[in-house]
Amino acid sequence: MFLLSFNLKAQVFSDKIDSIRTQYKIPALGIAVLTSDSVLEMNVYGINKIHSDSKIGLKNRFHIGSNTKAVTSFIAADLVSKGKINWNTGFFSLFPELKTTQNEADFTLVNLLNFKTPLTSFSYDTDIPKSLKMTGTNQEQRYKIAKYLLGRKSVDKNEDNLYLTNLGYVLAGLMLEKASRKSYNLLVEELGKNLGITFQFGSPNVKDKMQTYGHDSELNPINTENIKLNWLLTAGNLNISLTDYSLFIQNYLQGIQGKGKILEQNVFDQLLFGFPKFSFGWFNMTNDKGTSFIRNFGNANGFMSSVTIMKEKNLAIIILGNVSSGLAQEGIEKVFETLEEKYHK
Asked: Which residues are within 8 A (CB) of 243 and not within 5 positions of it... i.e. 6 or more apart?
């Protein structure tokens, strides 16, 4: 009787999550709730592509957009711990030929990864002139983009004294490649091997039509890559399955307890809490109840991803969706509130 009651409650909860997905027009949704040593909830709902009968599965992959920044920062921390580069290494010490009269100060790796560097805006909708011929490898193209954008006017600081632009991560990625003498793709692949997970690049459906499709705000499937996302690779162009992403995030929970893989406990603490407002890919936030938490939100090429880490509760909540719209973002927040209510006791 107890097992039957438990199963009924689980089904009711699952139906509630799926009803939110339907109400907020999200074709596919993935959720996971983790502690440092267990998975409290993991499920996927919906379909890979609108108007199809291809049901989403746990092996399906989601683009994580700006949550790539945590991966890049993790790689940076690993290279620093190995002595390949220093947090205070300056960008122009590695690329002196790119220094301009507008850039008097050297841009350090730590400041680039924490929105502390005055740089121009750069995202997947930034206008890049056609006269800037983008040929060569992705790495060579990112170098050309950096050279072009370094001479342009910086964004203004926000109220938290942050320069919110992806360009810092593009520059940091170039530094990591030069210091390690490896491409960013190889660095990501090596990290995945060490953690027992698989990252991939770009939108999952472009290489595999049976994989998850992103959708625009009108619920049109997106069938092509945005070339600018290749230039933004180190800031926001990875995809991963919910199961593998859960292992990556769970490693943070383990890491701040001194049980994580690859990095030491003090490094995990630095990554999550080293800066008061934004720290190595994570925003430090406080809700209206005064509870502090770590979060980032990804939004690119028809996908959205939300990750929240609550240190005091030893809890992480992951929500992945395959549509980019204001309505879907509201739905993802509604799913978060539902999961938080159940597990954040």
From this structure: 42, 58, 59
Q: How many domains does one find in the chain?
A: 2
As a whole number of Å, the end-to-end CA separation of the chain is 26
Please, which residues bridge with residue 285 across strands?
Answer: 293
Query: For the packed helices 265-273 and 68-81, what is the interaxial angle rounded to 10 degrees?
Result: 140
Residue where one domain finishes, among candidates 139, 161, 180: 180
Same domain (yes/no): 307, 190: yes
The range of the structural domain enclosing residue 280 comes to: 2-67+183-343
pLDDT of residue 8: 52
226/248 same-domain check: yes
* 3-class SS of residue 283: strand
Closest alpha carbon to 65 in 178, 222, 177, 218: 222
Run means of pLDDT, 10 residues per run, the chain, 345 residues = 53 91 98 97 97 94 97 98 97 91 77 96 86 84 92 92 96 98 97 98 93 97 88 95 98 98 98 96 84 92 97 96 98 96 81
**What secondary structure letter does DSSP report for 121?**
-
Decide which of 180, 204, 227 is a domain's last residue. 180
Which residues are bridge partners to 296 per DSSP?
307
Q: What are the backbone dihedrals phi and psi of residue 296, each rounded to the nearest 5 degrees, phi first?
A: -145, 155
94 Cβ contact partners less than 8 Å away, ≥ 6 residues apart? 174, 175, 178, 179
Domain shared by 61 and 204, yes or no: yes
Nearest to 231 by CA among 115, 139, 331, 102: 139
Cβ partners under 8 Å of residue 246, min gap 6: 32, 34, 39, 42, 318
Residue 345 is predicted with a pLDDT of 63
Tell me the two tokens of residue 194: 């060490």
CA–CA dist 322, 204 (Å, integer): 11
Same domain, 292 and 190: yes
pTM: 0.95
Do 187 and 332 sit in the same domain of this protein?
yes
